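tokens incoming
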């Protein structure tokens, strides 16, 4: 999902930052040749995508990925402790 594409901008975010933070952000934006608002939007969007990807995606080295995928194809193993746990009445009922 690429949320950095140009779309109508009808929402607003107001932020209060220290003078030091603003100066740092302005220097970073200038170093990239972008406006402050474009820099903040771009970098915060990228950080948000990274934060969410950590919760929905994972990457493994090729050999570990092969083992993981192979394990998905195996017949399930019965674990008596889990069967007993699920047989009990939930504390939320």
């Amino acid at each position: 999902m690429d949320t950095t594409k140009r779309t109508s901008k009808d929402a607003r975010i107001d932020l209060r930052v220290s003078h030091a933070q603003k100066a740092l952000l302005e220097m970073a934006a200038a170093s990239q040749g972008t406006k402050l608002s474009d820099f903040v939007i771009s970098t915060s969007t990228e950080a948000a995508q990274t934060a969410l990807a950590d919760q929905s995606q994972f990457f493994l080295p090729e050999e570990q990925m092969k083992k993981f995928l192979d394990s998905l194809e195996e017949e399930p193993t019965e674990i008596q402790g889990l069967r007993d746990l699920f047989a009990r009445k939930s504390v939320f009922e």
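note: The helical segments are 19-32, 36-56, 62-73, 80-87.
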